[in-house]
Amino acid sequence: MYPNKRCCLGNDRPTVILCVPAASSQSTSSPCLPKINQCPQPIQVSNPQSTNPQFSNPVTCPQPICPDPICPVPSCPSCPVCPSCSVNCPQPACVTCPSTTVPSSTVPLASTTIPWIGDSTPPTTAATIAPAPSNQSSTPAPAPPPPPPPPPSARQYTSNHTSAPLLGGKPYIDYLNQLEKPNLINHGIYGTTKITPQQLQAATWNGTPIDPVGKTNQELCDTFFPGGVMIGLEDLYNNTKPFQDEENPTMAEIDNWNLKVFQHFRAITGGIPIEADYSLFLTSQWGDERWATDLWDTKYPNNVCTPKRDMSRQHCGVGFWPRDCQDQQPYLLSGDPCVTNGTSEEGIAYLEADIPWAHKIARSVLARYVCAEGMTGHGAPMFGGITKIGWHIMDTDLGWRVLPKIRLQYRF
Q1: CA-to-CA distance for 169 and 281, rounded, in angstroms?
Q2: Whether the Cβ atoms of residue 53 and residue 47 lie closer than 8 Å to each other
């Protein structure tokens, strides 16, 4: 055995002794399992009183060794100095190893580990130590394999392309990311002075879906958006960590966080799952271009929107998409095929520009729809039915005016 070491007998493996550095008599810290990584390589020894035939005798400790205790894996919060053996559970049984040496014919393998330390379910067999030949090679072990690559980043849905004078698509999102706005600190969950920590604390969710059926609009509002904050949003954000840089999130990060917010609303209301559809992001954008510009009017003269930007006909443009695939090419992201189906339902809302992306969809779209219309009108698609969603965000004026409009399109 290693000299001057105190040994802790693993209680669920009566024949396995874990040798660790001896602690002073004044020490109150545990020399047992918590310090296993500081120990020499573990040595498996035979318990002379064990009748289990699967254990060999690579190292022999003088008798007597503690009789087989039957205990669960000890958490080993402390291991007091044990002058003699003890089998009282739940404390680990301890012995004092004499100052002897490891026989030359038995050498612990460098790769030997005790995998069940700290595991709730130990394996059925213990590690064994094979004798090494006297002329064992000193060649170092091969390097461990490289770690797996990180998961691919979430994809972007909003097109990088926009058509002047429409201020939409990614260029407009880049503008909204700028922080020179009142009340805006950054785009994280705590990045605005308009929403207090107390409001976030009052909007917790225990994970159980809440049935919305039979509730009035006000009851729905109070249940799912107390104080204007969607329940569970803070935990969703902190668990997801959607933005690597909260001052300047990427377009892909914003797209995917907004999608998670819609999905979270389905979760808290017990609705069916919903997912993003790249084609609905594009048809939303083309619908806005049809409404705001004459870009498509010459080649596609049917159902043009006149006058342009008519606030009384904001849904003008729904269902439009350029049928010529060549016309779609500037808008397509890498790998996306041309859109062949532009039919959809839609809703329109207006976003607060001076609140973070962490809150924009929940506060400006979902809360407004649900609190104003409940499970009818614009609120109805939020609760169920639709399974695909996409959107486009643009400015409502020809200048850089902070009044973002979002055109949501759905498919059942």
Answers
A1: 10
A2: no
CA distance 158 to 390: 9
* CB 344 within 8 Å of CB 409: yes
Burial of 122: CB neighbours in 10 Å, binned 0-12, 13-18, 19+: middle
Angle between helical axes of 233-240 and 251-269 (0-180°, round to 10) = 140
**Nearest CA to 392 among 159, 174, 184, 224?**
159
Secondary structure (H, E, C), 188-238: CCCCECCCCHHHHHCCCCCCCCCCCCCCCHHHHHHHHCHHHCCCCHHHHHH
Tokens 């994970």 sit on residue: 207
**How far apart are the C-alpha atoms of 347 and 389, rounded to whole Å?**
11
Cβ-proximal residues to 60 (8 Å cutoff; 6+ apart), any chain: 45, 46, 103
Backbone angles phi, psi at 9, to 5 degrees: -85, 120
Q: What is the pLDDT of residue 73?
A: 37
Question: Does 164 score more than 60 pLDDT?
Answer: yes
Question: DSSP assignment of 16-45, as one string?
Answer: EEEEEEPPPTT--S--SGGGGGGSSPPEE-
pLDDT tens-digit profile of 52-76?
333 333 333 333 333 333 333 333 3
Q: Give the contacts of 2 (CB within 8 A, at least 6 positions apart).
A: 19, 40, 43, 97, 102
Least confident of 29-38, 177-186, 294-303: 29-38
pLDDT for 145 equals 62
Q: Which two tokens stand for residue 336?
A: 């996306």
d(CA 342, CA 324): 13
What is the C-alpha separation between 309 and 314, in angstroms, rounded? 7
